[in-house]
Amino acid sequence: MTTAAKPGRRGGSKASVVKADATDSTAATAVSEGKTQRGIQSVEVGGRLLQALAHARGPLALSDLAASAQLAPGQAHAYMVSLTRLGLLKRDALSGRYEPGPLALRLGLLHLEQQPAFRAAVPSAAALAETVGFSVAICIAGPQGPTIVRYENAGFPLHVNLHVGTVMSLPATSTGRVFCAFLDDDAIRAMWVNQSGATDQPLVPDAERSAFDATLDAIRTRGLERSVDAPSPGISSLSAPVLDANGALRLALTVIGSTGAIDVKWNGPVARALLDATRDIGAALGAASGASFDPSSRAADLPS
């Protein structure tokens, strides 16, 4: 039985080591300011495993990670142990699959905080929560679906556990339907596969597809969606997209409150305040990029 090579040391299968060396021969050095800089090969090999997981957009078994990174499983396992100890990966106790660890998530949030859309949305979300008196979630597109990346608590506590990292159902939540309305089919399909855990399960039953498509058309027209007592009884919400100057979805703002307490009428004060907030964020994005941004006055002519 061949002994797997340990990170940073020679050993194990000669073919595996040669393969890793050949693949990393150009990656082990970097050119900066005209000077050649030598890197640490074992770190870059571990980076290939992280890249494989990122490209998969979902948890992977060791064998799949090794194959994607072009490593022997035994060699990959040694790297996975170290990456797990660092918190860059974690292994699910039930499935045995690897997924991003707590340090990777913190780094991801740090990266997110530098993005113009998120930075513009944070003060607007806080102001919106204070204005309407209900909690506000900032959601972005994650591998499994719309994911809360900022949550501004306001009003009375809710009986549902919403927090940073919560993934919203694509068909069952107002936030999810906003993403379905403004993202392309390939992006939604990839999210739904991860969210449902099945490659052949439709987003909605065939018999409901026409009605669902009509709902998405209506969301695009009014720039707003709502849920009443769904998916959680006693909880209602309004969600609106933040679009950049090119009309691309950057994130969504969702106002969440107890049914009966939150006004979810299309032309109600919460809806108008929400649309004002998304308009302001879009304008800030346009100003930051130097592009002209002429937001429509959607809040002025909403249906009741």
Walk me through what this model shows.
- By secondary structure, the protein is α+β, with helices and mostly antiparallel strands.
- The protein folds into two domains: 14-101, Arc Repressor Mutant, subunit A, CATH 1.10.10; 115-300, Beta-Lactamase (2-Layer Sandwich), CATH 3.30.450.40.
- It is built from ten helices and nine strands.
- The protein has a five-stranded antiparallel sheet with strand order 6-5-9-8-7, sandwiched between helices.
- A hairpin with a 5-residue loop joins strand 8 and strand 9 (249-258).
- The model is unreliable at 1-32 and 295-300 (pLDDT under 50).
CATH class of the largest domain: Alpha Beta
- Classified in CATH, the superfamily of the largest domain is GAF domain
Rounded to an integer in angstroms, the radius of gyration calculated over CA atoms is: 23 Å
Report strand %: 15-25%
Compute the number of helices. Answer: 10
Instruction: Give the uncertain stretches in residue-range form.
Output: 1-32, 295-300
CATH architecture of the largest domain: 2-Layer Sandwich
Mean pLDDT across residues: 85
